[in-house]
Structure formats: C-alpha cells, structure tokens
Amino acid sequence: MARVLVLVGLFAVSQLSACKGCGRNAHDVVAPGADAIERTIEVPPPVDEKDAEAILIETEGDFTLAGSLYRPRDPAAPLVVLLHQIGSSRAEWKGVRERLAAAGDMAFVAIDLRGHGASTKRASVEVPLAAFTSADFAVMPSDTARVLDWVRQKSRLTPRAIAIVGSSIGATMAIMQAARDRDVRAVVAISPGRDYKGLDIVESLETLGTRPTFAVASKGDSFSAEAVALIGRLNDNSRTVVVEGSVHGVKLFHDNPRLLPEIAGWLRAYLAAGASP
C-alpha cells in the first residue's frame, strides 16, 4: 500500500496561524469542488524565456495550442510534458521547470491548455475558458496525445523516456494520457481531482496499474487530498504526499520548499533507468 506522508513546510505553521477561518475544519478552509479551486487561482504573468522555442500544435476541434519547447543537449534525453491548472497558463511552470532541469539533461514541453493563455482560438474564433461547455472539457485530455504526437513527429527529439507533470486539471490529463500510452513512464499529479469538470480518473487509474505516480495535495484542499488517497489505494507503486495548509497547484512548492527537490529526484530516478528510487 502506498505511503501517505504529511510534510510540514517551512512556512506552513505561520500561514495557518494567520489564515482567515483557522478555527474551522479542513473542509471549511477550502470547500471541495471545482468552484472553490477556481476562485483561488491567480493567472501568472507571461514569461519571456530566451531558451524556449515557440511551438504550435493543432488539436481535435480546430484549437491551436501555443507552447514552449526547451531543447536538451541530447535529443534522446528524457522528456517532461508540463500541463498547468485551470485558469492559469504555461508560465506557472517557470520556477518548477528550472528546478527539475537541475536534476539532469531533460527536454520540456509546456503548453497553454485550450482556452488559456495564447491557446484561445478555435479556427479564427476566440473561445475563452469562460465560454467552455462540458463538451469542451471532455475533449481536453486528447490534447495531451496531440502534444506527444507532435514531439514524435516534428520536434527532432527521440526521448528515451517520457513523464507528464500536471497540476489540477492538468493532473487529470496526465493520468488519462499515461493510461492510454505505455511510453509514458511516470506521472506527477499536483492537486489532482477524482472527477473534475466531468473528467473521472478512476478508470484511468485502474488501467494505469502500478505505473510510477507521485501525487501530492494539501490537507485543507480536501477535493484534491481525497484524490491523492484514491491514487494511493489503487496504485501500490505510487508516492502519495499530503502537506499541511490549504493551497492548490504549484503554490504547494512555495509553502513546502523540500517538496520540489523530492519530486525532481523521484523523476530523475525513474526517467534515468526505470528503477525504483
């Protein structure tokens, strides 16, 4: 059975003591469900990164995904695909990518999900996230497959191993793609959800089996903490971590500075040789 660890970040205690409503229980701090999550999201500013190559990827339904490719020295170096949370953009990954890159030579592809950032046009029509229907969310997981197809066919990369790192709805997309694609060696799910925007991960988790999965959420983010517990129950080869606090997505790394180095080491071990870290 996967282990569930409770890590106390360097700043968690001070944040909890200062938070509004500290006397309430965890479910009061962050109510479970998508609406509570979306109210906490801050859209990161665009990032000007001179080491990134701008890429465009066509998807099902005529959306064009804008993204960034960070090319490694070795074309066969492992590839990490980064999928951001809802209401955000690929810019949220800047600090995370830099820390992961320090773990060794890796390729990175970060995209703006459809309806986000620079990926808001269906053909020539602007379709922002606010206009999305359930049908739009239902097709989003297929975008991850298109990203990997683009890598294999057009990037001039031949990655010997692939991992997908996703935050919130990006974690859902990561799990679903890994279940369909045996080339995906490892998954990192940051603040996942069991059934987010109608995308249920249970069947995908059952298909995924014991594929290496690192899942993390904060205790007060009960919607995601419950999904992390589910991943632990269904995958004996998962690493499940619950930290103190109530933040969601990549903000977990700000409050828990030991967490990102741990994920980087875990990824390095699996992508390098497929051995258990």
Percent of residues in beta strands?
A: 15-25%
Q: What is the spatial order of strands in the main beta sheet?
A: 1-13-12-9-8-4-5-3-2
Residues in helix, %: 25-40%
| Measured distance between first and last alpha carbons | 16 Å
CATH superfamily (homologous) name: Alpha/Beta hydrolase fold, catalytic domain
Profile the largest sheet: 9 strands, mixed
Number of domains: 1
How many strands appear in the DSSP assignment? 13
Overall shape: it is: globular
The CATH architecture can be named as: 3-Layer(aba) Sandwich
Number of helices: 11
In the predicted model, the low-confidence regions spanning at least 5 consecutive residues are 1-41
Mean pLDDT: 84
Topology, please?
Elements: E1 4-7, H1 12-18, H2 26-29, H3 34-39, E2 53-58, E3 64-70, E4 79-83, H4 94-101, E5 107-111, E6 121-122, E7 125-126, H5 134-139, H6 141-154, E8 162-167, H7 169-180, E9 184-190, E10 195-196, E11 199-200, H8 202-208, E12 213-218, H9 222-234, E13 238-243, H10 251-255, H11 259-273
Parallel strand pairs: 1-13, 4-5, 4-8, 8-9, 9-12, 12-13
Antiparallel strand pairs: 2-3, 3-5, 6-7, 10-11
Helix pairs in contact: 4-11, 6-7, 7-8
Describe this structure in words.
There is one protein chain. This protein has a single domain, classed as Alpha/Beta hydrolase fold, catalytic domain (Rossmann fold, 3-Layer(aba) Sandwich), CATH 3.40.50.1820. The protein has helices spanning 12-18, 26-29, 34-39, 94-101, 134-139, 141-154, 169-180, 202-208, 222-234, 251-255, 259-273, and strands at 4-7, 53-58, 64-70, 79-83, 107-111, 121-122, 125-126, 162-167, 184-190, 195-196, 199-200, 213-218, 238-243. The relative contact order is 0.18. By secondary structure, the chain is of the alpha/beta class. It contains eleven helices and 13 strands.
